[in-house]
Amino acid sequence: MEAGDDLPTALREAAYVAVGFALIGVQRAQVRRRELARQLPDLEQHLPTGVREAIDIVRTALKG
After folding, report:
1. Is residue 59 part of a domain?
2. Is the residue at 1 inside a domain?
3. pTM
4. What is the pLDDT of residue 31?
5. Average pLDDT of each block of 10 consecutive residues along the chain (64 residues)?
6. Which residues are CB-neighbours of 15 under 8 A, at least 6 positions away?
């Protein structure tokens, strides 16, 4: 292998690593979102009415 062949290979491998880290980050964000979604109903019980109404508005906006 020549010295010039190493650079494209290294760049390609670096790109694969970057994509892998990005996928892991997306998966972690999805897991955290699901955890928060499970906790939200429990937390809602302790919130004032105005905050609960705001949460309902946000939920409606996200679904629609």
Report:
1. yes
2. no
3. 0.55
4. 96
5. 77 97 97 89 80 87 85
6. none
Q: Which two tokens stand for residue 38?
A: 């499970």
CA distance 26 to 20: 10
**Token pair 């996928």: residue:** 23
Q: Where are the alpha helices (DSSP H) in the chain?
A: 3-44, 49-63
d(CA 7, CA 17): 15
In a domain, 15, yes or no: no
With left for phi above 0 and alpha for psi between -120 and 50, is residue 48 left, alpha or beta?
Answer: beta
Q: 27: domain range? A: 22-64
Q: Write the single-letter amino acid at 45.
A: Q
